[in-house]
């Protein structure tokens, strides 16, 4: 995926210096837009390495976060395309929703279909919505929607959309404490393939306005899902990303269960600001 990141960076520079002509948006976003298809077999070693990196038990069920990692390269390629109107470098992952209808098992071959579903207006720029569908033998097992924000960027013709209001965060009673070392980002980069330099190099991170290296948002999400210990075959998982976690870090977390709903929140202990808010709802 490093080659994809380098290509994306080059494309982003060109778009910043010489913006491409605005294409018809239905050619790059929407149900009829081009899709990328990825076929991957859930090899036991690959899944086990990922499980151990994010705190999941090693078992025959493939985490939905492993599936996300397999499709991420395809989404990066779509957003790096010549006619894509936004620079992919600098996009911020703000939300994620996953619907698991049935689990993917180790050894099964998955076909992931990835496309840019929408470009939407956002008070802070433009929102990019990317969908991924994961099929096994023609049956859809998992569907994912990822939301990214291009800060300060506007696209003519973007779909008008009102953003959901974020509730005022009040830290719950802490049940866990996570210590996240820089090595954690290195390990997650290896098992996920996400080698974005802001997670691996302090200078690169500071060049993008961060105080230092930050942990992958999807690592935090995956670790939170592992902490939820949801074992239902079908569930809906919703994640909202807030302030990034600068490495090294010690953060507070809380796991709260109420019937079929498990909530996992992660926040800065000193400032009381949230890093990630998530909910898992089990379905029959």
Give a description of the structure.
- The chain contains 7 helices and 10 strands.
- It has helices at residues 2-17, 44-54, 64-79, 182-192, 197-200, 202-207, 217-228; strands at residues 35-41, 92-100, 109-122, 125-136, 139-151, 176-180, 234-241, 249-258, 261-267, 274-283.
- Strands 1-3-4-5-2-7-10-9-8-6 form a 10-stranded antiparallel beta sheet.
- Helix 2 runs antiparallel to helix 4 (182-192).
- The longest helix is centred in the first third of the chain and has 16 residues, at 2-17.
- The model is unreliable at 9-14 and 17-21 (pLDDT under 50).
- GO terms for molecular function: fatty acid synthase activity.
- It comes from Brevibacterium senegalense.
- This is MaoC-like domain-containing protein.
List the topology elements.
Blueprint: H1 2-17, E1 35-41, H2 44-54, H3 64-79, E2 92-100, E3 109-122, E4 125-136, E5 139-151, E6 176-180, H4 182-192, H5 197-200, H6 202-207, H7 217-228, E7 234-241, E8 249-258, E9 261-267, E10 274-283
Antiparallel strand pairs: 1-3, 2-5, 2-7, 3-4, 4-5, 6-8, 7-10, 8-9, 9-10
Helix pairs in contact: 2-4
